[in-house]
Design goal:
This protein has 103 residues and is an all-alpha fold. The protein folds into 2 domains: 14-68; 70-103. The chain is built from 4 helices and no strands. The protein has helices spanning 17-29, 34-47, 49-64, 74-102. The chain starts with 16 loop residues before the first helix and ends with a helix.
Length: 103
């Protein structure tokens, strides 16, 4: 007998007893299988506009944050940039002093 490749994947999930009872009751009430109920629930979850916006924002943030900085990195980065700017300003002031004293 030839075997056929399954076009779906099987998942095993655990639910609290009260929730499981509700799932079974809703499936019976709507004359649907539990699988159909969960597929619809996932489609609804996936299409939720707020979740969609969060996913899109996360994708944009990851593409515009190539170093993977996090919010915790901000104070350190600010300190580093300020130190670089201070060093550059001092170097420019020293260069200006040398030019003035050379004249």
């Amino acid at each position: 007998m030839p075997t056929t490749t399954r076009k779906s994947r099987v998942f095993t999930i655990s639910l609290p007893a009260e929730m499981a009872e509700k799932v079974v009751a809703i499936a019976k009430l709507e004359s649907r299988t539990i699988s159909e109920l969960f597929r619809e629930a996932f489609r609804t979850y996936e299409q939720d506009p707020i979740r969609k916006l969060i996913r899109e924002t996360a994708n944009l943030a990851s593409s515009t944050n190539p170093h993977g900085y996090t919010e915790e990195d901000i104070p350190r980065l600010v300190k580093e940039v300020r130190a670089e700017m201070r060093a550059e300003r001092l170097a420019n002031e020293e260069e200006s002093r040398q030019i003035l004293t050379a004249q």
